[in-house]
Design goal:
Blueprint: E1 8-15, H1 22-31, E2 45-53, E3 66-74, E4 84-87, H2 94-98, H3 100-107
Parallel strand pairs: 1-3, 1-4
Antiparallel strand pairs: 2-3
Family: Belongs to the small GTPase superfamily. Rab family.
Protein name: small monomeric GTPase
EC number: 3.6.5.2
């Protein structure tokens, strides 16, 4: 696929404690490569991947594939135009797992004080 040759553009923001492997995860997912020597991300790290999603109709026939351009951002929470979030934690750190709840509340659009109905 060339630039602009997609049906959907979806932006995801990777969230989690420092050092849990956000950058490593993004590189593994987009490039199939793992490098354990990454240093802490300063500023913005940005990865892209193009995928084709095919869904089967109830009669078992595959429909036309939807071409999706994924933008995966690791920005220390600075990107505000994300359509979804990847919440990551380190399996060897219970605290990073417990902190996922904090990351969820920070990422939820209604989590800001005074937001929502009422």
């Amino acid at each position: 696929m060339s630039d602009g040759d997609y049906d959907y553009l979806i932006k995801f923001l990777a969230l989690g404690d420092s050092g849990v492997g956000k950058t490593s995860f993004l590189y593994q997912y987009t490039d199939g490569k793992f490098n354990s020597k990454f240093i802490t991300t300063v500023g913005i790290d940005f990865r892209e991947k193009r995928v084709v999603y095919r869904s089967d109709r109830p009669d078992g026939v595959s429909g036309r594939g939807q071409r999706i351009h994924l933008q995966l951002w690791d920005t220390a929470g600075q990107e505000r135009d994300a359509m979804g979030f990847l919440l990551l934690f380190d399996l060897t750190s219970e605290q990073s797992f417990l902190n996922v709840r904090n990351w969820m509340s920070k990422s939820h659009p209604l989590s800001a004080a005074g937001a929502g109905p009422g």
